Amino acid sequence: MKFNWGTGIVIAFVGFISFIMYFVINMSTNKKLDHDLVTEDYYKQELLYQNDINKEKNASKLLGKLSWKKSAEGMIITFPEDLDFNEVKGKVFLYRPSNKQLDFETTFSLSNHNLLIPDKRLLDGRWNIKIDWNYKGNNYLFKEEILY
């Protein structure tokens, strides 16, 4: 068989297309390379983002600030001392960027100024914490990226 320019171009195109198809199929079927959106209802959450901004502004106006620390029992979230803890109600959402199965959300009402999230629920590493809470009709939000 005689090898000429036309044959070489056809072989080059077929090789290039095969190379690209291999990577497209490999990227779409490999579970290790699977990346999800932060939330399933991403666009709905984007429309509600102004509410989050308003809640964060309310939280910044408080005299005391929300804080957290790691302890042997787990993560202790401390609410401002000047608030009546009996009137604080809300929910805590912990998001693990590396593993969707570790995300969890829980509602709370305080019995003192501290909220404990047990250590068995948290693995070491990066977490995004979002505390959405209500105090005497005002809504507040605390968001932070933490290393636990």
Report what the structure shows.
The protein has two domains: 1-34; 42-147, Immunoglobulin-like (Sandwich), CATH 2.60.40. Helix content is 29%, strand content 32%. The protein has helices at residues 5-29, 42-47, 49-60; strands at residues 67-70, 74-78, 88-95, 104-109, 114-118, 126-135, 138-147.
List the helices and strands and how they pair.
Blueprint: H1 5-29, H2 42-47, H3 49-60, E1 67-70, E2 74-78, E3 88-95, E4 104-109, E5 114-118, E6 126-135, E7 138-147
Antiparallel strand pairs: 1-2, 2-5, 3-4, 3-6, 6-7
InterPro entries: FixH (IPR008620)
Protein name: FixH family protein
Organism: Mesoflavibacter profundi
Concise account of the structure shown:
This protein has three helices and seven strands. It has helices at 5-29, 42-47, 49-60; strands spanning 67-70, 74-78, 88-95, 104-109, 114-118, 126-135, 138-147. Keywords: Membrane, Transmembrane, Transmembrane helix.
What is the count of DSSP helices, taking H or I runs of 4+ residues? Answer: 3
Strand content: 25-35%
CATH topology (level 3) name of the largest domain: Immunoglobulin-like
Q: In terms of structural class, how would the helical and strand content be classed?
A: alpha+beta
Overall number of strands: 7
Keywords:
single chain, 148 residues, alpha+beta, Immunoglobulin-like, 4-stranded antiparallel β-sheet, 3-stranded antiparallel β-sheet, 7 strands, 29% helix, 32% strand
